[in-house]
Design a protein that fits this description.
The protein contains 14 helices and 19 strands. The protein is α+β, with helices and mostly antiparallel strands.
């Protein structure tokens, strides 16, 4: 009845707008993602933006709307089961690169075929005509988003994996098997190795194995090329990401010099170029893109390699946005191991040049590999680093959570400045060395987190000591860093020599290097625990436990005193004040 009434209105007004043209130009309602995680991982394509016009009914008038099915599915993949495809034709998730399957939701790569949506359309009012310029808006094509696996969907919308137990079933990435022979081959397309390193964890995230492999290949192919033999010399571009996390006071020239020095010590002595970038703020992205375009040519391959969680996918999305004007659909999340397979990105560089995003290389010597998801959130650095400086004498120690401790055992000077560069969510503590041995049992897992919980302390490994000798020429600037892979570092400023004892878990890499940031804080921290929500919550829980225990102890004596009051006392003056 509603449809026929609307038709009669259109006929009476002799309008040229037909029902078919109206349905083709109506706006599509956009539905936000669900508020809780679910197995529905379909990404709804964004509709074309149609400006508000008075001829459209208001939002409350949904009773005057109807829906119809377009029957359009995303064209990025063919929907079939994992077992229906042959070896090389298996469908992969465009977000992480894992093989897709729709049979078992507990296995990696699970996805659901998207159902046909029924968008709602509002009718025009009787008294208003639609302007002709609105019809041109609906002719714009709708960008279709690809379907991703349930793990990528959960990471994109909720920042965590959907099923923790399925993480152990994820395939391991063997770099030597998949990429080693390609980078070391003397034939084939030109290769550009884009080594991505995290500025806030340079030594921990630097891919030493890749650097040594590529450096050896360059030396061998260069010698062969000089003798007239085939020699495909790869180009190495070192990209230091997340420089927005470093203090803005640091000099770019000094930082690049420091990066080249650390890269040589890490095994990469054949760098073509070095770029300091921030994919989030688009710092240095244009120079990086122009450099890679010149190196790769029109038929070469660009391989983005690096450790887990250094930001390779974020960097590639930023490159695509700069070149193509739109972001790729690679999944970004502050979770190690987000990318699970090699993903080919085409159309970014000219000609037939291709860009490949590779899974993160596992560095077992990074402390983040032993932490849980909640503990990794405390360690993860998401804002610009701020210094926390202690004025320390010999015989004192400083803790970074329950993960790292530095003892000033001997010193030729009275005072040493220790500046902590780590996540602001990690609480710190300064105290005497003779009391530091009791900190593990008394405060690890409570006031000093991570680890979270007393049981987690033993699961991280054996707590061991290492000894280092450092020296400096000035108190005004930091001269030496003591860095823990995946955590942060101590910056040491002194004018003299000192013997340091560094305590950490067995297997975690500790690096002594020249200072990355020479500055220290203007205000110094005091002895004891630093101000932190973790410390406050732990103190409240401890005080409550002590009050409960004290009340239980006082209940017994009070009852006995109450019963003894009825008995006569031999000498009442003995109990008087």
């Amino acid at each position: 009845m509603l449809f026929s009434a609307f038709s009669r209105r259109l006929l009476r007004r002799n309008s040229a707008l037909t029902i078919s043209s109206f349905l083709a130009t109506a706006s599509v309602a956009r539905f936000p993602p669900p508020t809780t995680p679910s197995d529905h991982i379909v990404e709804v394509p964004d509709p074309p933006s149609v400006p508000w016009h008075p001829t459209f009914l208001g939002a409350p008038s949904w009773r005057f709307s109807r829906s119809f099915s377009e029957g359009v599915l995303p064209k990025t993949i063919n929907y079939r089961s994992h077992g229906d495809a042959d070896g090389d034709d298996l469908l992969v998730c465009p977000g992480c690169g894992v093989y897709l399957q729709d049979e078992n939701p507990k296995l990696p790569g699970f996805f659901i075929k998207p159902s046909t949506k029924t968008p709602k359309f509002c009718f025009l009012s009787d008294d208003e005509d639609r302007k002709p310029e609105d019809a041109s808006v609906s002719s714009n094509p709708v960008e279709e988003k690809p379907v991703v696996c349930s793990r990528c969907h959960s990471l994109r919308y909720y920042g965590r994996v959907k099923d923790e137990s399925a993480e152990n079933l994820l395939p391991d990435f063997d770099f030597d098997y998949y990429l080693g022979h390609r980078l070391s081959s003397s034939t084939g397309s030109r290769s550009v190795v884009m080594m991505v390193v995290d500025a806030s964890d340079f030594d921990g995230s630097f891919p030493r194995r890749v650097a040594r492999l590529v450096s050896n290949t360059i030396e061998e192919d260069s010698a062969a090329w000089k003798k007239g033999k085939p020699g495909n010399v790869p180009r190495v571009v070192l990209v230091v990401t997340k420089i927005d996390l470093l203090p803005s006071s640091i000099s770019p020239t000094r930082l690049e010099h420091w990066v080249r020095q650390r890269a040589r010590e890490g095994g990469s002595n054949k760098l073509t170029s070095v770029h300091l970038v921030s994919a989030v703020r688009d710092w240095g992205m244009k120079n990086l893109i122009e450099d890679i375009k010149e190196l790769v040519g029109t038929r070469g391959n660009v391989w983005a390699v690096g450790a887990q969680n250094v930001g390779k996918s974020t960097l590639i999305n930023a490159i695509s946005k700069q070149v193509k004007g739109k972001v790729m659909h690679l999944t970004e999340a502050p979770v190690p191991g987000t990318t699970l397979g090699i993903i080919r990105v085409e159309g970014v560089f000219p000609g037939q040049a291709k860009l490949f995003d590779t899974p993160g290389i596992l560095h077992p010597y990074q402390i983040t590999t032993r932490l849980t998801r909640d503990e990794q959130k405390l360690v993860h650095i998401s804002k610009e680093l701020r210094p926390r400086t202690f004025r320390v004498k010999a015989g004192y120690a400083v803790h970074i959570g329950g993960l790292l401790r530095l003892d000033v055992e001997e010193a030729s000077v009275d005072t040493i400045y220790l500046t902590v560069w780590a996540s602001p969510y990690i609480p710190l503590h300064m105290g005497r060395i003779e009391h530091a041995s009791t900190m593990v049992e008394a405060h690890f897992g409570r006031q000093l987190q991570p680890p979270i919980g007393e049981k987690r302390v033993g699961e991280l490994g054996k707590w061991i000591r290492r000894e280092y000798k450092v020296s400096g020429a000035s108190w005004d600037v930091n001269s030496t860093d003591v860095a823990a892979a995946g955590l942060g570092w101590f910056a040491i400023g002194l004018k003299g020599e000192a013997v340091l004892g560094v305590w950490c878990y067995d297997g975690i890499d500790i690096t002594v290097r020249s200072a990355l940031i020479p500055d220290k804080a203007k205000m110094f921290e005091t002895a004891g625990f630093t101000v932190s929500k973790i410390v406050s919550r732990a103190d409240k829980a401890m005080n409550k436990t002590r009050r409960d225990e004290k009340m239980k102890q006082n209940e017994g004596p009070s009852e006995r005193v109450g019963s003894d009051q009825s008995l006569p006392l031999d000498n009442p003056d003995a109990h008087s004040c």
